[in-house]
Design brief:
Blueprint lengths: L1 E8 L4 E3 L3 E2 L2 E2 L4 E2 L10 E8 L11 E4 L4 H4 L32
Antiparallel strand pairs: 1-2, 1-3, 1-6, 4-5, 6-7
Length: 104
């Protein structure tokens, strides 16, 4: 399980929503439904593991809203240990294949 922080700019300083639990699961994994302010330029967010101590990515994430976002919304996808923000479902990975040890 993971937790999500939604971060946005507020005057005079940044504000952080409390950690949100996942809204549910599907065949891909857990998902979050995040209400967005459609007049903003994008969504700042941080994905954590369930402990809240380990971020999925070292840097905070930013998803710029695409043209037509106010009318159509958007979905973004992330894989564990992969900082790419996908706009369609990426291929599933099981474990971190980059850390695999060859068997000889």
């Amino acid at each position: 399980m993971a937790a999500l922080h939604v971060v946005w700019r507020a005057q005079p300083q940044s504000a952080v929503e409390p950690r949100a639990a996942a809204n549910g699961t599907d065949t891909f994994g857990i998902f979050f439904d995040v209400p967005a302010i459609t007049t903003d330029t994008g969504l700042n967010f941080i994905l954590h593991d369930v402990t809240g101590n380990n971020k999925n990515c070292p840097n905070d994430m930013f998803f710029p809203f695409p043209t037509g976002f106010a009318a159509n919304g958007a979905e973004i996808w992330q894989l564990q240990d992969d900082c790419t923000i996908y706009t369609s479902q990426p291929p599933h990975q099981v474990g971190n294949v980059h850390n695999a040890t060859p068997i000889s």
